[in-house]
Design brief:
Layout lengths: L17 H12 L4 H12 L5 H8 L3 H13 L3 E5 L4 E4 L2 H24 L5 H4 L1 E5 L1 H14 L3 E7 H6 L1 H11 L2 E7 L12 E5 L13 E6 L3 E6 L5 E5 L2 H32 L4 H7 L2 H26 L1
Parallel strand pairs: 4-5, 5-6
Antiparallel strand pairs: 1-2, 3-9, 4-7, 7-8, 8-9
Helix pairs in contact: 1-2, 2-3, 2-4, 3-4
């Protein structure tokens, strides 16, 4: 009497659990086929072993076992150690996968170099948007670490303090020139050596406008980042020559303004009012001008407090 063939798949004799299934999946992720991964694990469990024994141990059909063994031997994941019958042993996992990692790394580097010759540098063409405090400040640290010539940084003292170690290393370790437009009261805090130039914004460092919740950074006259810190931290980064040139021009004019205010503040105040009041009234919206007046009163109060402290 003919027996009915079972439609159930052949089960692996390996102890299959979730951990084994995950391991199989990871091995396949490194370029092994399902049968190759099963055969390799079977040999790790018991070797030396013949193709017949590997088939029984892995649950892989015998014809497919021979194909998998030949493929694994070609990539030196296993090797035959006897003849008639042929028995196989696996390459130790640490040796095998260290070799695969090295070859994969070399291949990825080679492909990346070849592709880079075929494509236009995207940094030159695009503005990349960044979001979140961690991502934005990580990019700032990266720009500072990669700088070799110059860093121009317009920011509040609190922002600068987050990067003071990286800035100091750039200036003292790599002799990068540093120019800072400071919102703050103590320029000397960021003068690490003679390569540092620190200028108080508009000669006082007090934020009369609305840029104190922003900061702008350029590195080596090659890349720039500008960020907004009002609610969530967002930023834009680019190597676009036109945009980098614009950022450098704006920072350069902040430096000009700081020096002009330092020398001619009395004449400027007489002509335009304290803190360029008439110019700001002409260019601000009513809400912006109201905030400007509020900040002006705040600055007057803090100035009086400092004078009172000094005369006690």
């Amino acid at each position: 009497m003919m027996r009915r063939m079972s439609s159930e798949p052949v089960a692996m004799n390996l102890h299959v659990n979730s951990e084994t299934l995950t391991l199989l999946s990871n091995i396949k992720g490194l370029g092994f086929t399902d049968y190759e991964a099963r055969v390799y694990l079977a040999l790790l469990a018991k070797s030396p072993a013949t193709a017949y024994e590997v088939s029984n141990g892995s649950g892989v059909p015998r014809p497919n076992t021979y194909s998998a063994l030949n493929a694994l031997a070609t990539r030196k994941a296993i090797m035959p150690v006897s003849a008639n019958p042929v028995r196989y042993v696996p390459q130790p996992p640490d040796v095998l996968f260290r070799t695969i990692a090295a070859k994969t790394s070399e291949l990825c580097e080679s492909v990346a170099n070849q592709l880079s010759e075929m494509t236009v540098d995207p940094g030159e063409r695009f503005v990349w948007n960044l979001g979140g405090d961690k991502e934005v400040h990580a990019k700032v640290d990266e720009m500072i670490a990669n700088s070799r010539i110059s860093i121009w940084f317009k920011a509040d003292a609190e922002i600068l303090r987050r990067h003071v170690a990286a800035l100091r290393e750039a200036v003292t370790g790599r002799h990068v020139r540093l120019l800072i437009i400071l919102y703050g009261e103590d320029p000397d805090e960021f003068r690490f050596n003679d390569l540092c130039e620190v200028y108080e914004h508009e000669g006082t460092g007090f934020p009369m406008g609305f840029a104190d919740n922003h900061f702008t950074l350029t590195a080596d006259h090659r890349e720039m980042l500008t960020a907004n810190c009002e609610e969530t931290v967002t930023a834009s980064h680019t190597e676009s020559h036109a945009i980098v040139t614009m950022a450098i021009s704006l920072l350069r004019h902040d430096y000009y303004m700081a020096e002009i205010f330092r020398v001619f503040r009395r004449e400027i105040d007489l002509e335009f009012g304290p803190y360029l009041r008439e110019l700001r009234q002409h260019s601000y919206t009513p809400d912006q001008y109201a905030l400007f007046e509020e900040r002006q009163r705040e600055q007057a109060g803090s100035g009086s407090a400092r004078v009172s402290t000094r005369t006690r």
